[in-house]
Write a structure and sequence with these properties.
Keywords: Coiled coil, Differentiation, DNA-binding, Nucleus, Transcription, Transcription regulation
Protein name: Transcription factor SOX-5
Largest sheet: none
Main location: nucleus
Order of helices and strands: HH
Strand content: under 5%
Structural class: mainly alpha
Number of helices: 2
Number of domains: 1
GO molecular function, one term: DNA-binding transcription factor activity, RNA polymerase II-specific
Distance between the termini: 14 Å
Shape: rod-shaped
Helix content: over 70%
Number of strands: 0
Radius of gyration: 32 Å
GO cellular component, one term: nucleus
Amino acid sequence: MKGTPESLAEKERQLMGMINQLTSLREQLLAAHDEQKKLAASQIEKQRQQMELAKQQQEQAFKNKLSRCLLTNTYSLKIETCSYLNDHDAVTKAIQEARQMKEQLRREQQVLDGKVAVVNSLGLNNCRTEKSAKHEMTVTNVDLM
């Protein structure tokens, strides 16, 4: 059963409106995905810079302590041994802190990867829906001829 030309024209207008809405939504999702990727890259770079700064500060602290240790070398073997043990403790603590920071970055990267995957899947699903809608519209137009 075929509809009147007016009802077919109305249906076509409605379909075009839906296609336009889907296209707009797709563009919004793609823009959000791009923004999410930029934000993730920015956060990773900031964390990398923070880790590098912390590493430099720890190295400097170690150098300062080592310099002090060398200056006290002339006093006695006991003082030198104590200073060395203190420096060793500081280095061990710095290594532990660096490992903790690395693990924290790994966890945050996993969270960001998960978010990007969700945004990617939303973008792909919308692309499929849009292609399917265009295909159905083409098939409908062919049937109407």
